[in-house]
Design goal:
Blueprint: H1 3-18, H2 29-41, H3 45-57, H4 63-79, H5 83-97, H6 103-119, H7 123-139, H8 143-159, H9 163-177, H10 185-201, H11 205-223, H12 228-241, H13 247-264, H14 270-285, H15 289-309
Helix pairs in contact: 2-3, 2-4, 3-4, 4-5, 4-6, 5-6, 6-7, 6-8, 7-8, 8-9, 8-10, 9-10, 10-11, 11-12, 12-13, 13-14, 14-15
C-alpha cells in the first residue's frame, strides 16, 4: 500500500468510527452518566467507578444526577465486593434525592441499598428500606416499581423464613406486573426464581426446576453467559435439580455457575462463597467427600475474613428511613 492509500484508508476509518458520535468536548454529563450505567450493567465495575468518580469530582451534575451517579457507584462497588464503599455511596445517593420530587429514583436507590443489606445478611435493614421504596412507588402509582419492590421484599422476607408475608408480596408483585408493560427480563427472572424457591419449599420439585430454568433462560437472554446474574441462576437451578436425584447434571450446572461467578466476582464475595458451600453440599451427596471438604474449608475461611474486614454488621444512616 502506498502512502496516499494508507492516509486515505485511515481517514475513512476515522469517519466510520466517529460519524454520528459527539466530539469529545461535546459529551454532556448526562451522556457520561449513561455510559457509566452501561459499563456497570456489562459487569465492567472498575471502569464504571473511574468514570463515576471523575464525573462527581467535576461537579457538573444537578442534584438528581448526583443521586443517580452515587447510586450507580454503590452498585459498582457492590459488584467488586467493596461493601463499605458501596454502603457509603448509597447513603450519598439517598441524601442527594431527599427533598427532590424524584420519588421513583429515590425508591430505586432504596431498593438497591436494601439489596446490599440482603446480600450481607442484614435482612431487617433490607426489609425496612424495601418497604419505604414500595410506599414511594405506591405514591406515584408506578405499577412496575411496585411489582419490583414487592418482589425484592418477598425475597428478603423468604430469607427471614417469613413465608406468609413473603407469599403476600410475591402475589402482589405478579398482580402488579399484569398492570404494566414496563417490566424487564430481569424483573421476570426474579419473579420466576422466587416462584422456584416457594415451589421447592412446598415440595413441588419439578415446578421448582421449571421456574429456575425459566429464570436462567431469561437472564442468559438479557445478560449473556458471562454475568453474575447468569452464574447465580445456574447455581440455583443445579441446587434444586439435586433434589430430583440427578446429581451428575446438578453438579455440571453448579460447576458452570461457580466458574462464571469466579470470573465475575472476587473470591470473598458472599455470592461466590455461598455458591462454593452449596456446591460442596451436593458433592457430599455424590460421595465426593474429600473434594467437598476442601472447598468447604476454604469458603468458610474466606467468609470469616470477609466478616472481619468488611464490617458487615455496621448500621446504616437513619436518613435512609425518613
Amino acid at each position: 500500500m502506498n502512502r496516499i492509500s494508507l492516509i486515505t484508508g485511515l481517514a475513512s476509518l476515522v469517519i466510520v468510527l466517529f460519524t454520528g458520535l459527539p466530539l469529545f468536548g461535546q459529551v454532556t454529563p448526562e451522556q457520561r452518566l449513561t455510559e457509566a450505567y452501561r459499563l456497570e450493567r456489562e459487569g465492567k465495575a472498575s471502569l464504571a467507578i473511574t468514570q463515576l468518580t471523575a464525573l462527581l469530582d467535576s461537579k457538573s451534575l444537578d442534584r438528581a444526577g448526583i443521586g443517580k451517579a452515587w447510586n450507580l457507584l454503590g452498585l459498582a462497588f457492590e459488584d467488586q465486593g467493596a461493601f463499605r464503599e458501596s454502603r457509603h455511596a448509597f447513603e450519598q445517593s439517598i441524601q442527594a434525592y431527599e427533598g427532590l420530587s424524584h420519588a421513583r429514583d429515590l425508591a430505586m436507590a432504596l431498593d438497591d441499598f436494601g439489596e446490599l443489606y440482603a446480600l450481607t445478611g442484614q435482612f431487617d435493614l433490607a426489609v425496612r428500606m424495601m418497604e419505604r421504596a414500595l410506599h414511594l412507588y405506591e405514591s406515584v402509582e408506578d405499577h412496575a416499581g411496585v411489582a419490583r419492590a414487592s418482589s425484592y421484599l418477598a425475597g428478603a422476607l423468604f430469607s427471614q423464613k417469613k413465608i406468609r408475608e413473603g407469599k403476600k408480596n410475591l402475589t402482589r408483585a405478579l398482580k402488579e406486573l399484569r398492570l404494566t408493560n414496563e417490566h424487564s427480563y430481569d424483573d421476570l427472572a426474579a419473579l420466576a426464581s422466587l416462584q422456584g424457591w416457594l415451589a421447592q419449599r412446598e415440595g413441588d420439585i419439578q415446578a421448582s426446576v421449571s421456574n429456575y430454568q425459566q429464570s436462567l433462560d431469561l437472564l442468559r437472554m438479557n445478560h449473556g453467559e458471562e454475568s453474575t446474574f447468569t452464574g447465580w441462576a445456574y447455581l440455583l437451578l443445579g441446587q434444586v435439580r439435586a433434589l430430583t436425584g440427578d446429581l451428575s447434571r446438578s453438579l455440571t450446572e453448579m460447576d458452570k455457575g461457580r466458574a462464571i461467578l469466579g470470573r465475575t466476582l472476587n473470591n470473598r464475595d458472599p455470592r461466590f462463597l455461598s455458591a462454593e458451600l452449596a456446591y460442596a453440599r451436593v458433592l457430599d451427596q455424590a460421595g465426593r467427600r474429600s473434594e467437598a471438604a476442601s472447598i468447604r474449608t476454604n469458603a468458610e475461611s474466606q467468609w470469616k475474613t470477609l466478616q472481619n474486614t468488611q464490617c458487615l454488621a455496621c448500621t446504616v444512616s437513619a436518613k435512609a428511613f425518613r
